Amino acid sequence: MTVIIKGNGLRIEDVVGVARHGDKIELHKEAVEKINKCREMLENKIAAGEAIYGVNTGIGELANVPLKPDQVKDFQRYLIISHSAGIGEPMPVECVRAGLLSRINVHAHGNSGCRSVVTQTLVEMLNKGVTPVVCEKGSVGACGDLAPMSQATLVLMGMGEAFYKDVKLPAGEAMKRAGIALVDMDVRDGLALINGSNLICGIAALEISDTEKWLKQAEIAATMSLEALKANMLPYEEMIHMLRGFKGAVSSAANIRKIASGSDLYKMEKVKLQDSYSMRSTPQVLGAVRDFLRWAREQVEIELNGVADNPVFVPDENKILTGANFQGTPVAMPMEMVGSSVTMASVLSERRLNRLLNPALSAGLPPFLAEEPGIHSGMMLCQYTADMLIVEQKILSTPAHIQSIPASADQEDFVSMGMNTVQKTRQILDNGCGVIGIELLCSARALELRNYKFGIGTRSALKAVRSFVPNLDINRPLYLDHNVMQQTVKSGRLLEMVESEIGELSAY
């Protein structure tokens, strides 16, 4: 499919399609007209001798240093070269593609002042699969993602490196093979490519999509554990959650009921009048995650469709506005909450896992779900691995957005550290996929030790788990199972298999 870029209406799903699946993009005709109109305004102001930040002045603490007329064009080229100052391994291709798409949508508003050829070249790069090699580390999230976006911009000038058809090449060669003409930076072009937190925003969009899928699989794993532990199902009825009023809890409870529909648990004599918190609090906890995630989605999509730039040019008013729309905090804060929420839900998962493995808490299951406890350890070590992943999640959940370190001679004396946020959120989510994968693994084993009828969704999930990992009858190395299940959750394949049987689970 082709995504039409017009400065508004860009969704997280569009970012996923372009970044991961190679969906094509096209600049709307009106967007091109807006870009050209803005450029005309800028050129008129330059001709009139008006001082404009980052155009005929330096940037940052050097904003008060005027540039000579013969320096104005060269400044944009030197700006990109000097700011390509990151460090570390190449960022994943999908992340860079997401960031470029976000920047293109900023330009489509017609407030950035660059030439349309610059934006069209970015469009060509996405459509033809030329992805700049960008170091993972170096952005502080204000004045935008300067270092990584500068490194990406080098490619337009034939400098740096780029991936093309999965091969890392010198940028000039990659652009030549793709049939894309190089761009010589002109007035304003360079700063218009880098002055926003668009890489942070693009990465956040991918993480929101992944967390939404993860959360549904957390509910599937929770329901499997509840069924294996002979849970009292009263805490999942709609009325109790409607009475309190949190939308996320209502949806989470509805998903659990849908997965457990048809289970004998609804007819069995209750083992306990009230189960442990890790069981009966599941809708409230996962519902809170869902509510935070909904807010994070709203914030990220506002940023995707906003004007993240400085200065901002307003042709209809013949005005130039200078401010801080590059500031990454509006995205960094919700993404901090996404990361810590995933950690919280993973802690809950491990507590249910503990009840599956602990014979004192498992309602009659064998110790550690072993076939012959004693000679076999069963799934004892699954908990060790989950515990390690969760401790790392807790460490990573320390907020980055409050860790500002001043830069640029204290002109830029508060920064968002948003890149730190989205990168650690990705690791938290990867660990969360491992934790939920382990709960799925153990709950599947526990269900096979029961002899009553499970819900239709639970049966589907059990079948899905067994399509990836065989039953554990005697000891075998569990690291293989752990890695397979982590990747299964990460890919969303188990979710697809379950939803194909019971219908789509509620997202919010």
Structure description:
The protein folds into two domains: 2-196, Fumarase/aspartase (N-terminal domain) (Fumarase C, Chain B, domain 1, Orthogonal Bundle), CATH 1.10.275; 208-283 and 328-502, Fumarase/aspartase (Central domain) (Fumarase C, Chain A, domain 2, Up-down Bundle). Helix 13 (282-304) runs antiparallel to helix 14, helix 16 crosses helix 17 (456-468) and helix 17 (456-468) runs antiparallel to helix 19 (493-502). 52% of the residues are buried. The model has no long low-confidence stretch (mean pLDDT 95). By secondary structure, it is mostly helical. The chain contains 19 helices and nine strands. The radius of gyration is 26 Å and the shape is elongated. A three-stranded antiparallel β-sheet has the order 4-6-7.
Task: Summarize the entry for a quick read.
The chain is 56% helix and 6% strand.
Record keyword descriptors for this entry.
mainly alpha, Fumarase C, Chain B, domain 1, 2 domains, three-stranded antiparallel β-sheet, two-stranded parallel sheet
The level 1 CATH classification of the largest domain is Mainly Alpha
Strand/helix succession: EHEHHEHHEEHEEHHHHHHHEEHHHHHH
CATH topology term of the largest domain: Fumarase C, Chain A, domain 2
Q: Would you tell me the overall average pLDDT?
A: 95
> Segments where pLDDT lies below 50 for 5+ residues?
none
What fraction of the residues are assigned to beta strands by DSSP? 5-15%
**CATH-defined architecture of the largest domain:** Up-down Bundle
